Amino acid sequence: MNQPKQPNSTLTLPHKVVPQNRRVCVVGLGYVGLPMAAVLARAGFDVLGIDVRTELVARVNSGKAESLEPGLAELIAQGSRSGRLRASLQPEHADVFIICVPTPLQSNNAPSLEYVEKACRTIRPFVRRHSTIILESTSPPGTTSDIVTKCAVPEDLEVGKDVFVAYCPERVLPGHALAEIVGNDRIVGGVTTGCALRVKSFFESFVEGAVLMTDSITAEITKLVENSFRDVNIAFANEIATLSDRLGTDPFEVIRLANRHPRVNVLSPGPGVGGHCIPVDPWFLVHADSGVTRLIQTARRVNDSQPARVVSKVRQLVHEHSATTIGCLGVTYKADIGDFRGSPGLEVVRLLCNQVDAEILVCDPVVENNDFREFPLSPLSEVLSRSEVLVLLTDHSAFQAIPMGALAGKLVVDPRGKLQSANSIQRRTA
Ligand code: SAJ
Question: If you measure from the C-alpha of residue 278 to the centroid of ligand 1, how many angstroms do you get, rounded to a whole number?
Fold first, then answer.
């Protein structure tokens, strides 16, 4: 069976020799920029992180920034103590500028480059001869060569000769960012070959993975292909689960057995695809050419329809068994991550609240102490004792550890197939 490559969470931080006093300015201290800034500071660069959030800037400067990313808060504190990591609302002159700002979708599913353009204009007065500008944000093809060069490079400087511009997509898995920034292979897409060579040597000074050079448009498309590949393959698994509903078979058994073929590796079905990357990035490829991206569009539709599929199963069980209490397990977009943006499980809870006449209890031990405010969360013990129908929405470790006995007599809907139960209803309601 082909096993997916697991993130190596034990990778140590780099001990490569970094040229001293090299100044790096990271624009955007989100889930990519902040770990990147902290890792660079740890590697020996003088790092200035830029963000529009005054509070975040203050927290980074005081060394007290919190983070959902394991190990990051400690690294920020270390960077701040050493003086190598500072934050500000305004850029300063730097040898290397790294842009890590969001590229969300507009309402028509076209990419919005508003933040990239703004970041470019913000750094432009600070870009000098020999500066390097790297775009890491997921971007549609042509963004680096058209927008970054136009908006960030002063008119009197020539790209490839005076200033070096490249696209280097981030590839880190949330929850494993510190290890993956260092350990993953990196793609460097230069606007010119000279740009690629310059940026390759920058990444090689702190990255343990291979650094592969190409042109900027190829690198932009490569990033979009990576996340679209995952979306299409999850859609395939979800389609198998839907088909199994119709045929009355167990999709997890089918997938488990199919994956014993040496060249088959079906991913896992679930309540849909969440987060802020995989449900978004395929649309960038669709936007590039909607006529030839039919498979990608279909995969998006299949994955977006999963919350409704789960709700319809729950509704049917509630109806058939006159159940009055439904327990929903998990609101974050994936296991053991405190991030609920774009969470399909959350969508299921919202739909249940609107469509099903029953009391809905929701539990999520990973976010209960964080900033989740949409509805009250209940302790797992209460949800387990009071619910007649249980729905597993996020496969947190705490839920996978629920003993089989605690599920006895419950009606279980388990779209991820991760609860320990031989309960026949659960096995039939993926
Ligand atoms: N999911 C399934 N079935 C699976 C795998 C995932 O339903 O078999 C669901 C998850 O539950 C979750 C969603 O898909 O809701 C996305 O989770 P994920 O782990 O596939 O991906 P992300 O969004 O956390 O991170 C992805 C990664 N991309 C790839 O694996 C190709 C990461 O490396 C990227 O850096 C990140 O997107 C990004 O920022 O682009």
Answer: 6
Which residue has its alpha carbon closest to ligand 1 atom 38?
277
What distances in angstroms separate CA 220 from CA 76, 137, 292, 303, one per listed residue? Answer: 29, 9, 18, 24
pLDDT tens digits along 69-101 = 999 999 999 999 999 999 999 999 999 999 999
Where helices occur in 83-192 by DSSP H, the ranges are 114-123, 149-152, 177-183
Q: Which residues are the active-site residues? A: 223, 277
pLDDT of residue 180 exceeding 50: yes
Decide: 187 and 18 in contact? Cβ < 8 Å: no
| Ligand 1 pocket list (CB less than 6 A) | 138, 170-174, 226-227, 230, 234, 267-268, 270, 273-275, 277-278, 333-334
Instruction: Determine the residue of 173, 226, 364 to mutate for testing ligand 1's pocket, defined as the one with the most ligand atoms within 8 A of the Cβ atom.
Output: 173
- Show the DSSP H helices in 248-379 as ranges: 251-258, 281-288, 294-304, 306-321, 344-355
Q: What is the pLDDT of residues 117-148, one digit of tens each?
A: 999 999 999 999 999 999 999 999 999 999 99
The mean pLDDT of 41-57, rounded to a whole number, is 97
Consecutive H or E run containing 203: helix 193-204
| pLDDT at res. 262 | 98
Q: In this structure, which residue's CA is closest to atom 37 in ligand 1? A: 277
Centroid of ligand 1 to alpha carbon of 174 (angstroms): 8
Quick one: average pLDDT of 335-350? Answer: 94
Q: For residue 422, is pLDDT > 90?
A: no
- Considering only CA atoms, which residue is closest to atom 34 of ligand 1? 171
Q: How far is the CA of 131 from the centre of ligand 1 (A)?
A: 34
Q: List, as one string, the DSSP characters of 155-166.
A: TTS-BTTTBEEE
- pTM, two decimals, is 0.92
Instruction: Report the separation in Å between the CA atom of 273 and the middle of ligand 1, taken as the mean of its atom positions.
Output: 8
Exposed / middle / buried, residue 325 (Cβ in 10 Å: 0-12, 13-18, 19+): middle
Decide if pLDDT at 67 tops 90: no
